[in-house]
Amino acid sequence: MADSLLGPAEIRDLAARLGVAPTKKLGQNFLHDPNTIRRIVTAAQLRPDDVALEVGPGLGSLTLGLVGAVRHVHAVEIDPTLAAALPETVAVPHLSVHLADALRVTGDRFDPAPTMLVANLPYNVAVPVVLHLLAQLPTLRGGLVMVQKEVADRLTAGPGSKVYGVPSVKLAWYAEAKPAGKVPPAVFWPVPNVDSGLVFFARREPPAAGVARADVFAVVDAAFAQRRKTLRAALAGWAGGPDRAETVLRAAGVSPQARGESLTVGEFAAIAAEAKLSGYGGKLTPSRAEPEEVDS
Ligand SMILES: C[S@@+](CC[C@H](N)C(=O)[O-])C[C@H]1O[C@@H](n2cnc3c(N)ncnc32)[C@H](O)[C@@H]1O
């Protein structure tokens, strides 16, 4: 790992030189602690032949750690000032800087193809960014992201947990996720008023073949939109009535009295598959962020 990691003085000097005033809107909290950078790079379990995708390189703190660990780094930054300054801070040939919104990037932009997502994510768009990239970049084998601690808890929760919800199930569609530690506010400038958490995830096969991801996600959205209701009631609008919802649930082997918070992603997939077979679930509304396609 580069021994030129940025500390508090370097971060402040760099920001002053570039005239950067961090904005909340873009989730700009910059890391200024070399130990935390080393921790993130280690927790990502990178291989020397990995190609890292970093969303939001900012002033380059984490980027400097990544370029010492992998064969190529793609850094996607939405802020033009930060994107323009990055090649000077991280002056290596195996870095590609992309001035772009991570929520809109597609796979064809990256050569070589990214294999690991490693990022201190902008907190306001962290979950949509992770889901968008897993959908768009099949070459990603996993990643390590830093997000707000509560979001880390949600992303890694399992059925039955109080914080299990839409982000937990959707991430579970793509990958197995586990918590990889807590990070205190003091390692950032400016200091946020929340703790952060690390999430490690490894891609796996989707739990069901032949079901469109968007159809499964529509069931998940409907179930958690009214999470206190039984699935019979919560899925009534989606299925075209509570009786139809019950028929689909029974066919999928799920109790109509259960609640979404107790179901695995595989069970959500089974419900979507049964809805398709029975012709119910006609009110499927593909999630906007997700391209329509069948995972097989
Ligand atoms: C939490 S900061 C992390 C900065 C740096 N990686 C670090 O650890 O010090 C988030 C970064 O994401 C950038 N950003 C915010 N929204 C973005 C988006 N939609 N696409 C790409 N970058 C974004 C911000 O400009 C900022 O540089």
Q: Can you summarize the main beta sheet? A: 7 strands, mixed
Q: Which bin fits the share of residues in helices? A: 25-40%
| Number of separate helices | 12
CATH topology of the largest domain: the name is Rossmann fold
Poorly predicted sequence stretches spanning 5 or more consecutive residues: 283-296
Q: What sequence of helices (H) and strands (E) makes up the elements?
A: HEHEHEHEEHEHHEEEEHHHHHE
* Mean model confidence by pLDDT: 93
The CATH fourth-level homologous superfamily of the largest domain: Vaccinia Virus protein VP39
Question: Which distinct ligands sit in these coordinates?
Answer: S-adenosylmethionine
Distance between the termini: 39 Å
CATH class annotation of the largest domain: Alpha Beta
Binding site for S-adenosyl-L-methionine: 29, 31, 56, 77, 101, 120
Keywords: Cytoplasm, Methyltransferase, RNA-binding, rRNA processing, S-adenosyl-L-methionine, Transferase
Protein name: Ribosomal RNA small subunit methyltransferase A
Family: Belongs to the class I-like SAM-binding methyltransferase superfamily. rRNA adenine N(6)-methyltransferase family. RsmA subfamily.
Concise summary:
Its EC number is 2.1.1.182. By secondary structure, the chain is of the alpha/beta class. The protein is built from twelve helices and eleven strands.
Structural overview:
It contains 12 helices and 11 strands. The longest helix is centred in the C-terminal third of the chain and has 14 residues, at 265-278. 38% of the residues lie in helices and 18% in strands. The strands form 3 sheets. A 7-stranded mixed β-sheet has the order 4-3-2-5-6-9-7, with helices on both faces. The protein has a two-stranded antiparallel sheet with strand order 1-8. The protein has a two-stranded antiparallel ribbon with strand order 10-11. It folds into 2 domains: 8-203, Rossmann fold (3-Layer(aba) Sandwich); 213-283, Helicase, Ruva Protein, domain 3 (Orthogonal Bundle). It is of the alpha/beta class and 296 residues long. Mean pLDDT is 93; it is low at 283-296. The structure holds S-adenosylmethionine. The site of S-adenosylmethionine has 24 residues, from strand 1, helix 3 and strand 3. S-adenosylmethionine is lined by residues 26-31, 55-59, 61-62, 76-79, 82, 101-103, 120, 122, 125.
